[in-house]
Amino acid sequence: RYLVKVLERRDQEAIASYLAANLQRPVSLELWTRRDSLLVRSDRDPCTHCDDTLDLARIVASLHPGLSLPLYDLDKHAQQADDAGIVRPPVTVIRGGGRTLRFTGFWAGS
């Protein structure tokens, strides 16, 4: 896990400032993950970045009271995941203002 260095304090402050100035409606960051099995399972891939994505989502959600973070497990919420077409975690579904945006994998980039 390498998240510790991904979102430094100054970045958190900049994001919090941006959200304070621009977020006008509640926004949900729905995070779909799956706990890795202690057994090697040939029927599924390991959730390589689930823990990192969860850590980052918790940090971001803490930066503004208008952000919520509902957590879903693909095994526990299998029917909902199937209905939403979510098959490979982690998946983040951002909902707000009648719009939806979906990210698959860890929120990283340059």
Short summary of the structure?
The chain is α/β, with parallel strands linked by helices. The protein has helices at 9-22, 50-61, 78-84; strands at residues 27-33, 67-68, 71-73, 91-96, 99-104.
Q: Could you characterize the architecture of this molecule?
A:
The model has no long low-confidence stretch (mean pLDDT 88). The chain is of the alpha/beta class and 110 residues long. It contains 3 helices and 5 strands, in the order αβαββαββ. Strands 1, 2, 3, 4 and 5 form a 5-stranded mixed β-sheet that branches. The two termini are 18 Å apart. A hairpin with a 2-residue loop joins β4 (91-96) and β5.
Describe the SSE topology.
Elements: H1 9-22, E1 27-33, H2 50-61, E2 67-68, E3 71-73, H3 78-84, E4 91-96, E5 99-104
Parallel strand pairs: 1-2, 1-3
Antiparallel strand pairs: 1-4, 4-5
Largest sheet: 5 strands, mixed
The number of strands is 5
- Helix/strand class: alpha/beta
Q: Give Rg in angstroms.
A: 15 Å
User: What proportion of the residues form beta strands (DSSP E)?
Assistant: 15-25%
Number of helices: 3
Rounded mean pLDDT score: 88
* Helical content band: 25-40%
> Spans with pLDDT under 50 lasting ≥5 residues?
none
SSE succession: HEHEEHEE
Q: Judging from the principal axes of the Cα atoms, what is the shape?
A: globular
Measured between the Cα atoms of the first and last residue, the distance is 18 Å
Features:
110 residues; alpha/beta; five-stranded mixed beta sheet; 5 strands; 30% helix
